[in-house]
Write a structure and sequence with these properties.
Helices cover about 10% and strands about 35% of the residues. The protein has about 90 residues and is mainly β. It has one domain. The mean pLDDT is about 80.
């Protein structure tokens, strides 16, 4: 009796980028499962939005140099890595 062999594989993309804030401090940001091409010297912004109840909605990575944008789903992890504090925009 022959038992068939089942083989499967999964590739996960991992990125580590360094972001320098206006005060000159560099922060490492690790992105998992997203293919975001970045090059040294490109200007990017990381923008995180929260719902009124304080729960995370999403984070956007904007590459100003390449005029491209990606929506990141794990805003909480990114906020923790960059030590970002939520704020409420009130008019």
């Amino acid at each position: 009796d022959v038992t068939p062999v089942r083989i499967s594989s999964v590739s996960i993309i991992n990125h580590e980028i360094w972001v320098k804030t206006p005060d000159g401090i560099e922060h490492d940001v690790k992105l998992r499962g997203m293919d975001i091409p970045l090059r040294t010297g490109q200007e990017i912004s990381l923008i995180s939005a929260l719902k009124k109840d304080g729960s995370h909605l999403h984070t956007i990575l904007q590459n100003h140099t390449a005029s491209k944008r990606w929506v990141l789903r794990d805003a909480s992890a990114l906020n923790t890595e960059l030590e970002l504090s939520p704020f409420n925009w009130k008019t």
